[in-house]
Model the fold of this input.
Amino acid sequence: MWKAKTIKQKIVILVGITLITGFLIVRPHMVNKTIDIYGLTKEEALDKISKDGIANKYILKLLFDITGAHIKYGEYKFKGLVSPFEVYKKLTRGEFLLHKITIPEGFDTYEIAKRLQEEGICSKKDFLKYANDKSYAKTLGLNADSFEGYLFPDTYFFYKHENPKDIIYMMYQDFKEKMKENHLKPTKDQIIIASIVEKEAKYLKDKPIVASVIYNRLKKDMPLQMDSTVIYALKKEGKWNGNLTKKDLSIKSPYNTYLVKGLPPTPICNPGINSIKSAINPAKSNYLYFVSDKSGNIYFNKSLKNHIKTVKKVEG
Done:
């Protein structure tokens, strides 16, 4: 009789310990962790989650085995009271951590690609591959050699390891939406002009006048002679080092507007709304020349003689 009671007591204690242990394993607990499981196997991912104290890997494995669900691999943020079931739900839904990325006005595809790589969103190489993919542009209804000029500068929220095609799609859709919102229907040439205006004019007041200079020079069949187009030519050749020299002005490229008359074959950056508006509605002027000082102030001239004088003053 005494022995039977002892066995019952042991069973009760064992059950109690099991229940308490189970409760401790599955109960919600405070977590503040960011974890990236991209590229891992299921076992590696669950092991990493467990080691980081987010949830017990055996409980998670049991949930996945019972339901037959699959893990969506990427970067996750777990914060606050978290239970294994909540971790399981997040992993199956692919509720990845979003990163706020701002693309400034005037960034070209090379600068965008660099920023995305620095932020761990996607590789520079992969982004440029699709940004310069004419066939992909065509599938999205864009009749252009690349997406240069049509990736709208804005603030976006991207996941790490995002597909660059999806990023380009979002940015191009944003461009189309912004054009619709502002009742703008720019032509290909106007986007090219807007991209030059964006690179050449720092201040809003100067943008319509810079646009007028471009149109005036085109009408007179004068080469545009814009430094920004030469810089883009150097980027296309992988030769840009951040310093423009006189030697660079002789680079053989369709983007070198010192040597080739007319507009460059594509935009040279992704312009903002004000530059696009300026390209569509330029100021009325007779200016043919301009020069900028170190602060970005622009001085316009009608004659080459006065322009040379201004350049000497600006350059000191």
Remarks:
- Confidence is low (pLDDT under 50) at residues 10-25.
- The beta strands are 29-36, 75-82, 98-102, 155-159, 289-292, 298-301.
- The two ends are 109 Å apart (CA to CA).
